[in-house]
Amino acid sequence: MLTSILNISYLIGALAFVVGLRRLSSPDTARRGNIIAAVGMSIAILATLVYPFSGAANNYLWIAVAMMLGGAIGWVASKRVQMTAMPQMVSIFNGLGGACAVVLSFIEFLNLQKNGTAAGLGELSVLVFTLLIGAVAFTGSMLAYLKLDGKVWDSQVTLPKHNIINNILLLVVLAMGAYMIFTGTYTTLFIGIFAILALVYGFSFVAPIGGADMPVVISLLNSFTGLSAATAGLIYDNKIMLVGGILVGASGTILTVLMCQAMNRSLLNVLIGGFGGAAAGAKAEDGEQVAKVATVSDAAIQMFYSQSVMIVPGYGLAVAQAQKVCKEVDELLEANGVEVTYAIHPVAGRMPGHMNVLLAEADVPYPKLKDLDEANAALPSTDVVVIVGANDVVNPAALDDPGSPIYGMPVLNVWEAKSVIVLKRSMRPGYAGIQNPLFFHAKTRMLFGDAKESLQNLASEIKGL
User: Fold this and answer.
1) DSSP three-state, residue 447
2) What average pLDDT does the structure give for the chain?
3) Is residue 92 part of a domain?
4) Catalytic residues, which ones?
5) 211 lies in which domain range?
């Protein structure tokens, strides 16, 4: 009877995961989707706690303390995190999931030794895979966090011929894993060395990947964590872990593929290309380039008397925490009969959907958000494009400069609009480390300054018109 209740509870939890994941596909329903998935996880946890198990009498005490401590840390972290730091938090939490898989698999190896149990080929394969994937997800995510937070630069963690070193390290780790699986040898020392090398490989794996590819890397590492959770579910014959892990792994993999398609690059090219690691590759222009500067008054008048304005948000919008001021400018323009839309590039920001999250926080209606293809189709008939902190996703070098690192990547063709206004702190290159010819285009005017302050000034000017 108790087993039936457990299985039904797991089924309800799994259905809640699926429904919640489905609702996460739209900013309009994402918050409710999170709640539904959280309820499903709560049901699964409670069902697991009431399931009888053998062991120490104080197991429930350990579980309760761990849950309270982890819950408190998660609650405080989620309350304090700024939207600009959301990618970093995602990386840390994702990495901790991988760390859990490492600990679980290592403990099970030790239990096999303690009990003197001869593990079969299938069991050893699952344990080795869980340990390897979990280790890569853990240290890889930690390095991704350090890169995103500006604490570590690519040049500080990469070595000459780094990709060759990675390949050698991977072969060694795989060979050790295969040796354990097919020989049944898993001494504590051997497992420890394998775990350490797997952790080092996870760090080294992410080291040469450039900052502009971080959204893809985060998505890929998320899928790794999901896979490690799924295999941990196999270890413990826990169906909810298996289903939840598969859902996370599958969704992360699908998202990784979609983002690679959005960048017109293969996953292999992302992993070994080092895109975004250094400023290089753009063709040189003849003569001195001069950017035209706009005043706040000129920009406000041009936007106020336009028929259509398209806003292109980028990481600079997040850094300045200017999404709510941007919405205010949107409302002022709409009140004057101006059609305002938002162009969302798939890899804008530092994690998948970063711009959608920012604009959803400011209550920007989802129908006003246009994806890459929709935006490019509407740009030729758009009067003014306002770029707020975006750089690489609006770089024309992706289309016309074969020497550029981003050549072939689909971008927003903002130069096809009648006029372009760029809100930017300075002329410094974007995260990919390459100059943007758009800033010197005949249709472009630069409005320098902090994005939030510039938008506030624009709102004040528009109110006075």
Assistant:
1) strand
2) 85
3) yes
4) 392
5) 85-278
The radius of gyration of the chain's CA atoms, rounded to the nearest angstrom, is 25
N- to C-terminal Cα separation, the chain: 72
Residue with tokens 């394969």: 125
Q: Which of 246, 278, 310 is the last residue of a domain?
A: 278
pLDDT of 273 strictly over 90: no
Q: Rounded to the nearest 5°, which phi and psi values hold at 426? A: -155, -175
Q: Retrieve residue 212's tokens.
A: 């502009």
Token representation of residue 453? 């302050």
Same domain for 96 and 189, yes or no, is yes
**87 or 191: which leads in pLDDT:** 191
**Domain identity same for 91 and 205:** yes
Q: Map residue 448 onto helix, strand or coil.
A: strand
171 membership: H or E segment, kind and range: helix 162-183
Rounded to an integer, the average pLDDT of 142-148 is 87
- Identity of the highest mean pLDDT range in 75-89, 306-320, 341-355: 306-320
Q: Give the strand pairing for 339-343 and 308-313.
A: parallel
Last residue of a domain, one of 214, 247, 278: 278
The tokens 């490019």 sit on which residue? Answer: 376
**For residue 245, how many other CB atoms are within 10 A of its CB?**
24
Token representation of residue 455:
């938008």
Could you give the C-alpha distances from 462 to 230, 334, 343, 388, 453, in angstroms and in order? 54, 11, 22, 17, 14
Domain contains 4 = no
**What residue ranges in 250-398 does DSSP mark as E strands?**
308-313, 339-343, 369-370, 384-388
